[in-house]
């Protein structure tokens, strides 16, 4: 197959993959971790521990409180210092468990060895149950509980699994490093997800700026006719699941719909690897690969980080905060958000910490919209960002809903291309939040 991409919109920002080629390095254990009990879309987990409790690595400290929810585990061995509200990655105070780190003794039954286990000895139902118990969520950023995605809604049927290795966000290289170093585990994780979903076809999509990852993943799946690797053109936001589905299968997810509506389920490569560990190794999701990078960072790196580790800890591991730092971004430059506190914890959805220099951080002065429609031409969802911003600014929420603001994937392509430096995405996010509240209240009646 030749190089594929999605057909509508998209941009080509500078890649800046500074940490590409850096091997994954274990970040070590901090003095304390703060583990939020809501690291996923859906209902927060119910806390099971209290101050003074001793916990082990991999122990459940908060359990799923509904179907769209999942378990939270201790990422270290130590003593619970506090169960309280702490600032999360967005700056809001959310319930979390603070643990004083005293070691790394795993719970009984977890296999922490490196031996590859290739035979999958579980039924689809058992796979879904193990993934639920292990707290697996989408590691591409959405953090949707993976057992829910594997449970096909009544009346729907999936025929394809897509594994997202595009990693189109500038600067970030965590998925790239994972594919290079854990290709065999990823291949088995893909087979596990196929079996859990009940499909016999899977395609791993990787942008063509990662030829080494394409090569090693092709080698890893070469013995399985049901799994293939598809090279993709380099275009942002190729990693959006709707864009990935359009690029690889030429299927279009309807407005307000889900990938399963067109017979597809999408998982990130990190989720496939975590699923391998959960099913084959009885290891819950207590760590993930995080890129720490930036043009002034002395040691841009890909770290294996325990959940709950302060961002400040891994920034120090990467050489510390440069003097010319103006912003620290949780995520990448397009979809990430600036943080106000460097002690925010790394969570399941943390893909990177980006340190921005002063010369790159300042926004240009906002000028009036000149109706150039550049924002319309680059929108991968076919929306009119200039209009949505105006409606959000004026509180026209009924119009926002009618004009499909909830279809926005918040990729930031509109803001990136606007010659008037208008904060399009900022206002669209505000509008989405309000429309979302209205829609939820309507359903509750």
Can you put this structure into words, describing what you see?
It is a single chain. With 445 residues, this protein is α/β, with parallel strands linked by helices. Among the domains are: 124-281, Rossmann fold; 374-444, no CATH class. 28% of the residues lie in helices and 20% in strands. It has 14 helices and 17 strands. It has helices spanning 124-133, 146-149, 174-181, 183-197, 211-220, 241-249, 269-281, 311-317, 358-361, 374-378, 385-393, 397-402, 413-417, 424-444, and strands at residues 24-26, 32-36, 46-47, 54-55, 60-63, 72-73, 77-87, 93-103, 160-164, 202-207, 227-232, 264-268, 287-293, 301-306, 325-330, 337-338, 352-357. The strands form four sheets. Strands 1-14-13-17-15-16 form a six-stranded mixed β-sheet. Strands 2-8-7-4 form a four-stranded antiparallel β-sheet, with no helix packed on it. Strand 7 and strand 8 (93-103) form a beta hairpin. Helix 3 runs parallel beside helix 5, helix 4 (183-197) crosses helix 5 (211-220) and helix 4 (183-197) crosses helix 7 (269-281). The longest helix has 21 residues, at 424-444. The protein is globular, with a radius of gyration of 21 Å. The model has no long low-confidence stretch (mean pLDDT 95).
Q: Which residue ranges are poorly predicted, with pLDDT under 50 across at least 5 consecutive positions?
A: none
CATH class of the domain at 124-281: Alpha Beta
Q: Can you give the mean pLDDT?
A: 95
Enter the CATH topology name of the domain at 124-281.
Rossmann fold
Largest sheet: 6 strands, mixed
CA radius of gyration: 21 Å
Shape: globular
How much of the sequence is in beta strands?
15-25%
Structural class: alpha/beta
Number of strands: 17
Number of helices: 14
Widest beta sheet: strand line-up: 1-14-13-17-15-16
